[in-house]
Amino acid sequence: FMEQNIKTLEALKDKLCNWKYYDEKQLQELMKEFEKFPRKEFSFFYVPILVDKTLIENIIEIGETFQANSNISINVISSLGCIVRRYKLKPSSKVFELFTKAIKNRKVNYYVSLHISAFPQYRTWKDKWNYLLSMPQIAPKKQSMVNFHHEIKQMLNSKDYIPSEVIKKTITILNSHISSVELSKYSKDEYLNTINLLEQMGNKHTV
Fold it and tell me: Could you tell me which of 165, 186, 191 has the C-alpha nearest to residue 176?
């Protein structure tokens, strides 16, 4: 079974590295098939194929060429994001740039938001805080709110610096979510705990 998967992935890699031989519709299908591999369960056997430099360069080119095609864009962003996050690819500034450009496409932005914080470039990105605060508004909003909360919790766990203005706005976003949505007791306590930690951090800023 694994052997068959590797053969299929190798064949997709070869086709994507020769993507200029295919028309847009064929390419859309190829990207759709390829994206399943990095997104599915992690496999050690996929590593050398998925982090291959030539493959990554070609996927970036596909993403740049077909920016207007949301189906291709979603699968390019999702594939590269999973390869960075799960297969530990060190992303070039070119990959990061592709992600920041994809934010403008409302259909693709959700997939950007799932992965962009895994990029080393994200830490020093000038739009980092504005983007983070925009996350709860990304459709589908329900899922984006969960992702936003997860991002905040990760920052708190790793003791990352959060500017006091961002702390205030985040507390407002979380409070308004608690009061406007029917949550389980567990979820509500999770949000309240995060707010509490943010308030403690905010107080430290003002001391």
Answer: 191
